[in-house]
Amino acid sequence: MEGSVRVDAPADPDGAGEAVVSQKTGTLYGVGMGPGDPDYLTVKAMRVLERAPVLVHFCKRGKRGNARTIADAVMRDPAREFPLAYPYTTELPPDHPDYVAALAGFYDEASDRLADHLGAGRDVAILSEGDPFFYGSFMHLWRRLKDRFPVEVIPGVTGMSGCWTRAGTPITWGDDVLTILPATLPRAALVERLKGTDAAVIMKLGRHLPKVRGVLAETGFLDRAVYVERGTMAGERVIPLAQKPDDSAPYFSMVLVPGEGRRP
Ligand SMILES: C[S@@+](CC[C@H](N)C(=O)[O-])C[C@H]1O[C@@H](n2cnc3c(N)ncnc32)[C@H](O)[C@@H]1O
């Protein structure tokens, strides 16, 4: 698994008897770091974190990324790691042309940087909160690098499964249909998507909590809804949404609407 430079001694065209040095490319790892509590890291994730020569994580400028905080429990070697700081997070709407251009440039530059390491034979592990293939920034680097380098994605416990576990509520029973929604969708779209579902997870709450509260009231789900903040992390908070007195919500928060399906 480790980045390596292989020295082979195959057919020697010049007959000079010198070993031919062939460079093996490194592997790009997307490492699912789980929902927050480092005890939910998988054995496979731990193995890669211990051995990869290059470790990167996404973060807001001047702040530590959450995926990196999860890794505190297992990583003690700053020489192997560097952050990838987003040019914007919530300063501009995600469909703003400046945001789109800046993010595309950021991912292009980051993938060039990682390609240098991979091309030189060093494995690169991208620390990804939750599961890398579930709304993960990792995917934007994966898309740019997957056709040039070997890739291995290590699944992680998702934030939502950490949250419903900590809320002590099963999310789906029997034939329940679960709908996962980003709270960033327009109000009408949220209402439309919730109609007819049995259970829901509403992510990316932040400043959208008042809208989500209204939508849940309109669709009849408010009484069942549970608000979970920083599930499995320090500062965790779990409360029925109807009892939450204010409409503030941090980035790491979601609303769960548990299903009530078949229970023989
Ligand atoms: C960009 S998505 C990343 C999802 C992540 N890849 C996963 O597998 O859960 C970020 C959103 O996930 C949700 N989230 C992830 N982990 C969470 C946690 N531990 N507690 C509460 N919400 C969480 C929040 O709604 C947050 O806005």
TrEMBL record:
Pathway(s) this gene product operates in, as recorded in its UniProt entry: Cofactor biosynthesis; adenosylcobalamin biosynthesis
EC number from the UniProt entry: 2.1.1.130, 2.1.1.151
InterPro entries tied to this protein: 4pyrrol_Mease, 4pyrrol_Methylase_sf, 4pyrrole_Mease_sub1, 4pyrrole_Mease_sub2, CobI/CbiL, CobI/CbiL/CobIJ_dom, Uropor_MeTrfase_CS
Pfam families cross-referenced by the UniProt entry: TP_methylase (PF00590)
Enzyme class per UniProt: transferase
Family according to the record: Belongs to the precorrin methyltransferase family.
Name listed for the protein in its UniProt record: Precorrin-2/cobalt-factor-2 C20-methyltransferase
Source organism of this protein record: Methylorubrum rhodinum
